[in-house]
Amino acid sequence: MEKFSDIFISYAKKTTSPKFKIEGVYPDWDFNVIPTEFRALIEEKTGLFCGRSFVFQEFDKFINSHNKGYFTVIGDAGMGKSAIASKYILSRKVPCYFNIATEGKNKPEQFLSNIRQQLIIRYRLPNQENADLRSLLQKASEKLSENQKLIIVVDALDEVEQEGSSNLLDLPKNLPNGVYLLLTRRPYNLENKRLNTSPDTPYKTLDLREKQYQKWNDQDVREYIRLFLEEDQQDQDKLQKWLQDRSISQLTFIEKVAQKSENNFMYLRYVFPAIANGQYDNLELEDFPIGLEEYYYTHWQRMNMEGKNKELEVFVLFILSQSKVAPTSKIITEIVQKKDEFKDIECLEIDKVLDKWVEYLSKEKSQGEIRYRIYHQSFTDFLTKQKELDKNRKIFEEVVISINESEYRNSEISEILQG
């Protein structure tokens, strides 16, 4: 099979037949090209993807005018950076890595191990099981034909956890010819940029916040809202009914919500299910929160999270915001029970809390158990600012100290708490 694959790939690369193209390019054929651990994420991020053509056009210009280099897409939380990365990976079938702080997948050694495996398989690199990134890129570049390019996409550079002052993920200052890295990250200053390049390695940034891209951002957000209203299988009917009950035209809704969102896709990702689930039944369109931060704060208030009867919910959210490993509801229950006032809490009550916050959480099945993590880093950032959660820090630290790591379950709890 491998011999046949080599012959087929060789033929596909030589031919000019359009039948071998995927979205206009001849890919590096590999039946397992996208790592399994990222497939569900990529599928979710590209489900209702639209627009962003200006980003892809700028990147294509960059790789076609330079023989190597770094290209970084910069944007605030929720501006669609991960979706852009996912769409490019899906369409071009390139090596990739997603830094995900909420899952603890954000360290240089994890990145290297994952990318090493992808490059070894893709370029059939022998005896490279312990190679560093610089050597891997060099070996891979030597396998490229004259017009071939090796493009690696790395998402969320800002979520990398790495001590010292060297380049994030130990990315090399100098890249071999034919090698390009497409990166995404939040805005940074010179102190936390941590991506130094040599003079002969081109470096370019595209900041989604810049005025020159405002028109394209406006168009893409409006098109996304239209797609959600007309094609989202889960909430389309409920959203249309919400509009009909209030005699709001689709065009008016699109314009108003686009303005309220401040062109933030994460805002839309949260607000549409909230409308569909009846959370906005008593709220006029004009009174919708403005921007992602205000959306989080408004929801916090609507859930009355400062009330005295919300201590359990607050503590559960605090645990999730601090966890480096996605816990099960059973694990969360065991942690909660270590707080005296919650010692009699049962798992069913924790399940109810998790259900209340389901739109902000991501579920993943592992070894027959459902594990939970906060869906987006921006919500974790918001939670860390809330004084109601901060009150739990002392008891949280006491829980960590009290854990007996000699037992399996307590060892797992310790891993979750301490990362």
UniProtKB/TrEMBL annotation:
Positions of transmembrane segments: none
Superkingdom assignment: Bacteria
SUPFAM superfamilies according to UniProt: P-loop containing nucleoside triphosphate hydrolases
Domain Nephrocystin 3-like N-terminal residue range list: 57-171
Keywords: Repeat
PANTHER family membership: AMELOGENIN, NACHT DOMAIN-CONTAINING PROTEIN
Name of the featured protein: Nephrocystin 3-like N-terminal domain-containing protein
Annotated organism of origin: Crocosphaera watsonii WH 8501
Lineage: Bacteria, Bacillati, Cyanobacteriota, Cyanophyceae, Oscillatoriophycideae
